[in-house]
Write a structure and sequence with these properties.
The structure holds two protein chains of two kinds. Chain A is mainly α. Chain A is 67% helix and 0% strand. The chains are: A mainly alpha, B alpha+beta. The interface between A and B is medium-sized, with 15 and 16 residues.
Chain lengths: 350, 191
């Protein structure tokens, strides 16, 4: 896309080109967040045999817009004892951390924010800024609940970065690249070439790889839920214990930005899982329905189905205890992934 | 060895129970909603539901039995006796009305919806209805005035009763005076 637009911009206006190139993920996040807020409320309501929004538009489709309007109008309350600069900065830092991750997330074979060689590594590294933002929010609020929430959040995200990274490593070992476009190109050509089904490797290797890639994929998904702080791993904002966790003191637009970052993060982990294990923008039918435009459809479909799955799990399971959370990460996910990584390496070498 | 077995059994248990739970929730997504869109759709109240009280004041004979039965004293009734020349008519149940009812107030904010006032009413004029939407911005509006008498009517009735009472008292006084006079006369006769 950069090459395509380059001729229209002279060197003096190249900054404008970069802004235009950076805009699509932002537009996507905003539209996607509005849609997902509605979807989540509808799914959760129907799971409880309720109807949810019914008044604003047909089946309440305009309700997210009304919510946004309400949040914009709301008073911006800042606690007297809060650390003001950090308090104002943290929601933006959380969102920036998430949005920066979208830079290397491909949306089609023709569009990727920045086609760098260390794409996967970059996403893991840059999304760690989110932890800083959450800790900052908890600390700056000068509130015990916020502080507890932030501490839990930091502990949780740091613990679950390890299984995420190891699960990504399995896919990276098979595809042999850290560039997300290359990883997807490796899986192009149909459903049988996806990494979750062993990738496009010889059949014998594939048969041995499938159980390990499948486990790695499952763990990637579980750790992804923990990374975005959603039930059953929503300890940082456990309503019954901590009011709202790190965003207890936030109101109005700053709260909305936290919310937006959470939803964007949901899509980010889903998108990365879809790119690494499910072939990203490549069509499951080989050449049929493939191409740059269909690519957008496929990757959004894959990513969004994971978002739906996350919502489904959220409204099914209760919250884990802190010790159970740590047990799951350190004693279950990580040992399993060590086995997966080792076995994948062995199979690929032999 | 046992520990290893427990470890794997726990993992299996976790995964299978998650699957069971998710199966339950997905089935409920396709289950029709059990809730209704309240202000648009309303459930019919049961036949003997006890909600807002209603008094058919035309049938009230002012016997005060409902006010006596009320455990929270939310009913207050005043009555004025009708004079002999007035005919207040009869209730729909055939009871003769002998009292004006200038005041029949129910403080519905106090009412506990027990329905105890309904049973003693001889004319069945106080009933519980199925109306349950009667919120007010000012709680004084929750005191319902059921009496149909205008202030002038009350004044008239009071004046009439007073006059009748005075007449009665005068008559009594006259009778007493007459009796006294008779008494005073009698000893004379006897002597």
């Amino acid at each position: 896309m950069e090459e395509l637009l380059q001729p229209f911009f002279s060197d003096d206006y190249s900054w404008l080109l970069y802004i235009i190139l950076a805009a699509p993920p932002m537009v996507f996040i905003l539209v996607y967040a509005l849609v997902t807020v509605w979807t989540e409320m509808k799914i959760s309501a129907h799971m409880q045999d309720r109807l949810a929004y019914m008044y604003t538009g047909p089946h309440g489709v305009l309700q997210p817009l009304a919510d946004i309007l309400k949040l914009i109008q709301k008073e911006n309350i800042v606690p007297t004892a809060a650390n003001k600069p950090l308090f104002f900065l943290s929601p933006f830092l959380v969102f920036i951390g998430t949005y920066a991750g979208f830079a290397t997330l491909p949306f089609s074979s023709a569009y990727i924010g920045s086609n760098i060689n260390l794409g996967v590594f970059y996403i893991i590294a840059v999304t760690s800024i989110v932890v800083v933002g959450l800790l900052m929010a908890g600390w700056a609020s000068n509130n015990k609940w916020s502080m507890f929430g932030a501490m839990r959040s930091a502990g949780q995200i740091i613990s679950y970065e390890i299984p995420t990274a190891l699960a990504l490593l399995v896919a990276v070992m098979i595809t042999g690249s850290l560039n997300l476009q290359d990883i997807i190109r490796f899986q192009d050509g149909g459903i049988q070439n996806w990494v979750v089904f062993g990738g496009s490797v010889p059949l014998v290797q594939k048969l041995f790889l499938i159980p390990f890639t499948f486990i790695a994929f499952l763990i990637m998904f579980i750790a992804g839920i923990a990374e975005v702080n959603r039930t059953p791993f929503d300890l940082p904002e456990a309503e019954s214990e901590l009011v709202q966790g790190y965003n207890t003191e936030y109101s109005g637009m700053k709260f909305a930005i936290f919310y937006l970052a959470e939803y964007a993060n949901m899509y980010l982990v889903s998108g990365v899982a879809a790119c690494l294990f499910l072939g990203g923008w490549s069509s499951p039918f080989g050449d049929f329905m493939s191409g740059p435009i269909w690519g957008v459809f496929w990757i959004v479909l894959k990513g969004y189905s994971f978002v739906i799955l996350q919502i489904w799990i959220r409204w099914t399971l209760p919250r884990l205890r802190v010790d159970q959370l740590m047990y799951t990460s350190w004693k279950v996910l990580i040992p399993f992934l060590f086995v997966c990584v080792f076995a994948t390496g062995l199979i690929l070498v032999l | 060895m046992e520990a290893v077995r427990t470890y794997f059994r726990d993992i299996w248990k976790a995964l299978s129970s998650i699957a069971i739970g998710m199966n339950v929730t997905i089935r409920h997504v396709f289950h029709p909603a059990v809730t209704i869109q309240y202000p648009d759709v309303k459930l019919k109240m049961p036949e003997r539901a006890r909600n807002r009280l209603y008094v058919n004041i035309d049938d009230c004979i002012g016997c005060d039995q409902c006010a006596l039965a009320c455990p929270v004293d939310c009913i207050s009734i005043d009555t004025i006796k009708a004079t002999a020349d007035q005919d207040l008519g009869a209730t729909s149940t055939g009871h003769k009305k002998r009292l004006h009812v200038p005041k029949f107030d129910i403080d519905i904010a106090k009412c506990c919806y027990c329905g105890l006032c309904v049973y003693p009413c001889p004319t069945e004029c106080i009933v519980m209805t199925d109306v349950y939407e009667f919120a007010e911005y000012d709680r004084h509006n929750l005191i319902y005035h059921y009496s149909s008498m205008a202030p002038e009517e009350i004044e008239g009735a009071t004046a009439k009763l007073k006059k009748a009472d005075e007449e009665m008292a005068a008559k009594k006084a006259a009778a007493a005076a007459a009796a006294e006079a008779k008494k005073a006369e009698q000893p004379k006769q006897g002597s």
